[in-house]
């Protein structure tokens, strides 16, 4: 054997750098299902099904092309259950001349793999992950010397570089950003087209049985699994989104509706993040929909910004700031996670709905994650480590490089403003405006004190009061801080008592 080539569970792409120049006569591809990766946090059962089934399909695809794959299944009795253990076993068995891998997405694994050269006693090349549209060196170069990094400027560079939604003299439509048009409340009668479902084939069914038995104590179950597990399925899901839902994606992007977490969202993050979809093709397909008159500019620009902008930006920030980023807790938050994050048993209808959507589907859309769960965690001062771990566990698209900056940075402001220019703190009025949750809630969103008062309201003011100094210094948050400072002291006291009463009851484990 000349080269042993490693393919990880989130590297399932034909154009992976580790597979370039592969010689089927002399090379072997190593793939391994290991407990370590399924349990370093107890991932949602559907996420494990997704990754393992997609791995098995990818191995089959390589074999069809005549590639030799050394594949360890989870229930193989000789499985060492770590990537490193499986690499050592393969090296001992096959005596390759060298190992080639693509850089892993997570810092944790990079630490392990960068020691392989010494530990395995043979040359180990770790290549850049060229599936991302901004290399880590380029991101570092872009960030170098800038006092404050902002996604908007990074995104404009990316638009120019890839020529997406660009005309000779500037951005298509003469504006970089159409966000103002994208924050509408969805009227009741609109019925979003159902996304395609990918019913489990034999391979997926076998994985579902294995996961159900082996990880029975993980959050969420395997039943109802219908995510794409091959590149062909992922392409179908994308085509369907572009043809049926993209046109309305912009308008209703921020709206939340009971029992329908998908609405007009793309549902492609699971496929992008494990390598079944290529982000550049996704952006080009969206642009084509605009050029062909299938979708309006506000929708297409809003969507491209997520994939070409945010997705690349959070990855750049993650690698720029790890491992320090994982320890940041700028607001000094220490409260433990309430049980209702797992059970959904709460009187707060918004949180109950999002936790149930999350448990059932391993999915919730961006605003559910940011403005319901994240916002509550921010206002209640929940410990960033616990919240971080929760988000890494519960979503099928969760990998630390994308999850952590979104959670610690965007949702919790634990990074002190690296990711977001202000904390995304909001009272119940925001949730009422952007969802149908409040109408069915046991609490009243219009009340701030008393037994029926929406907890988000007093928690919001308590948050503003706790962090008044920091907020006053932030031009984008100074307004609430000033309003608080001017508020009648009796009202201030009542709000803070209300917040403390709620948090105490929550900490005692009462149903709140
Ligand atoms: P759409 O809303 O249709 O957006 C299209 C695509 O844009 C997504 O598939 C995704 O690839 C990309 N995108 C959009 N927003 C972001 C963002 N903020 N950061 C990175 N990419 C983005 N995304 C993950 O992929 N994994 C995570 O673990 C994750 N955790 C999050 C945690 C919090 C607290 C928040 C606020 C956001 C998180 N996101 C995460 C970003 C975003 O919520 C999801 O990418 C999105 O909901 C996935 O659903 P979709 O494919 O239907 O996306
Ligand atoms: Fe959530 Fe408050 Fe609305 Fe209830 S009233 S759904 S707790 S925002």
User: What is the class of the largest domain in the CATH system?
Assistant: Mainly Alpha
Strands across the major sheet, in which order? 3-2-1-4-5
Number of helices: 22
Shape: globular
| CATH fold description of the largest domain | Serine Threonine Protein Phosphatase 5, Tetratricopeptide repeat
Q: Would you identify the regions where 5 or more consecutive residues have pLDDT less than 50?
A: none
Report how far the terminal alpha carbons are from each other.
61 Å
Helix content class: 40-55%
**Average pLDDT, all residues:** 97
Overall radius of gyration = 24 Å
Number-wise, the strands total: 7
- Helix and strand composition category: mainly alpha
CATH architecture label of the largest domain: Alpha Horseshoe
Give the count of structural domains: 3
What does the secondary structure layout of this molecule look like, with pairings?
Layout: E1 3-6, E2 27-32, H1 35-39, H2 45-64, E3 68-72, H3 83-94, E4 98-102, H4 107-113, H5 116-121, E5 124-127, H6 136-143, H7 151-162, E6 166-167, E7 170-171, H8 202-214, H9 231-252, H10 269-274, H11 279-291, H12 297-321, H13 340-343, H14 349-361, H15 366-380, H16 384-394, H17 400-411, H18 428-433, H19 455-466, H20 468-472, H21 478-486, H22 489-507
Parallel strand pairs: 1-2, 1-4, 2-3, 4-5
Antiparallel strand pairs: 6-7
Helix pairs in contact: 2-8, 7-12, 9-11, 9-12, 11-12, 12-17, 14-15, 15-17, 15-19, 16-17, 19-22
The protein binds flavin-adenine dinucleotide and iron/sulfur cluster (SF4).
The site of flavin-adenine dinucleotide (FAD) has 27 residues, from helix 10, helix 12, helix 15 and helix 17.
